[in-house]
Amino acid sequence: MSKWTSLLDYIGSHRDIVVLLSGGLDSSFLTYACFKAKSNVVAVTFSSPLMPKKEVEDAALVAKDFGIKHFVINSDDLSVSEVRHNHHRRCYFCRKHRDNLVKKWMDGCFASKNFVIMDGATDSDFSEYRPGLEAAEEDRVLHPLREMGFKKEEIRKLAREFGLSFWDKPSSPCLATRFPYGTTLNEEDLTRVAKAEEYLISLGFRNVRVRSYQRSVAVVEVSPNDVEKVWAIKDDVKSALFELGFLVVAVDLEGHKSGKMDYILRGGVERDNI
Predict the structure, then answer these.
(1) SS3 labels along 57-78
(2) 3-state class of 16 per DSSP?
(3) 200, 167 in Cβ contact below 8 A?
(4) pLDDT along the chain (274 residues), means of 10
(5) Where do the structural domains in the chain lie, given as residue ranges?
(6) Residue 268 burial class via C-beta count within 10 angstroms: exposed 0-12, middle 13-18, buried 19 and up
(7) CATH of domain 3-161
(8) In CATH terms, is domain 175-273 a member of 3.40.1090?
(9) What tens digit of pLDDT does each residue of 26-45 get?
(10) Cβ burial, residue 43 (10 Å; 0-12/13-18/19+)
(11) Spatial CB neighbours of 85, under 8 Å, sequence gap ≥ 6
């Protein structure tokens, strides 16, 4: 039996499902699987200063495409002290906060107590530094993609084969990952980083990050193959980011690498050994 068939059977074994739809590839793929399994499913997306607004919009489009009811829950993540101060286990506390919000929301919206919560965590995620998954385990959130052994590239390949519009969407982790651990986060700085990334994406760059190692300092990361391209238009990029309020703009010559703040946290130890 294929992983895809097993996934549909797994989802179909649950009558009522709340799927946490971030708008990214994995959760969108899971939402599609829920649609194909014909389960009673609703999708929930969190709106937060930590997420670009476009992610909420993308999530809404995914739910609409599959005819799934979609709800947006406002999550004031910065009200959580460990999140606001960018604790190195920030994701744990943020996930506990959000899981609590969605459970309260479910109690107020549904008479049925049969709803289970599912997220788009994959088998690949559990090999990385993800404190939020620890919280999800504690809160009994189900991970169907992980249960079936799906890795990220398998999901991308299947999504492409199925003709899903989001198959090549780059990952877009929480905006707090653009700041060093221990940095006090605020909406102004988060919004500035989000707008800087939106600008670079509008120029055609993908896998974009604008890290702010110090306030008002922007370090642009793009795919390694695009470093020369962004360097060629450095004056335009500098001007645009200056207008957003950055005082120093630099380009990371190494190119984009996921989890760079975690790498720095460990003092340069190779991430494969974390």
Answers:
(1) HHHHHHHHHCCCEEEEEECCHH
(2) strand
(3) no
(4) 92 94 97 93 97 94 96 97 97 97 90 87 86 95 96 96 95 93 96 97 94 94 95 96 97 87 62 39
(5) 3-161, 175-273
(6) exposed
(7) 3.40.50.620
(8) no
(9) 999 999 999 999 889 999 99
(10) buried
(11) 182, 183, 184, 185
